[in-house]
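Run Pyridoxal 5'-phosphate synthase subunit PdxT through structure prediction, thanks.
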Amino acid sequence: MKIGVLALQGAVAEHIRSIELAGAEGVAIKRVEQLEEIEGLIIPGGESTTIGKLMRKYDFMDAIREFSSHGKPIFGTCAGLIVLAERIDGQEEAHLELMDMTVTRNAFGRQRESFETDLTIKGIEEPVRAVFIRAPLIQSVGEQVDVLCEYKGEIVTARQGHLLASSFHPELTDDYRLHSYFVKMVEEAAK
Ligand code: GLN
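Sure, done. The structure for Pyridoxal 5'-phosphate synthase subunit PdxT is below.
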């Protein structure tokens, strides 16, 4: 099972490592043609405006929407979550507009810009270690979206069918269970 990590900017190598710990093969995706080789895609953290610009420059927008239209799973982490969202608070334009949710960028105030915590995520038995770095939160979700985790009353993980999004960086710890969860989504979709 090959899972790609969009390699335009951000934490790519760490995601590939976590995908491999979860038992799948990780591939860095730099060109749209490579989307044909993979069954699932991770859009990593970094800076969403930069990732969005590079996605437009290298023709990834329509190619990833097409990938999604075949039910192939996509997992956005941190900036990747922002890239997946239909609406970004305070911005006219969003990016892929695939997940029915409104997100707020840099939502955890200054003192809490970066922090780690343990989160209880629906579908994963024990709490997961989560690293937040200038993280976004999910302000509101549409009916199709299942909230998987909240932190202090704010939504930080959600799923809409074959789409998964987390505010935090699951790839920066040795805890790869959210990647295992995604690998399972990819296996089920590929059946
Ligand atoms: N603050 C970044 C943004 O708005 C996201 C930060 C991250 O991915 N760690 O794009």
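The first helix runs from residue 12 to 21.
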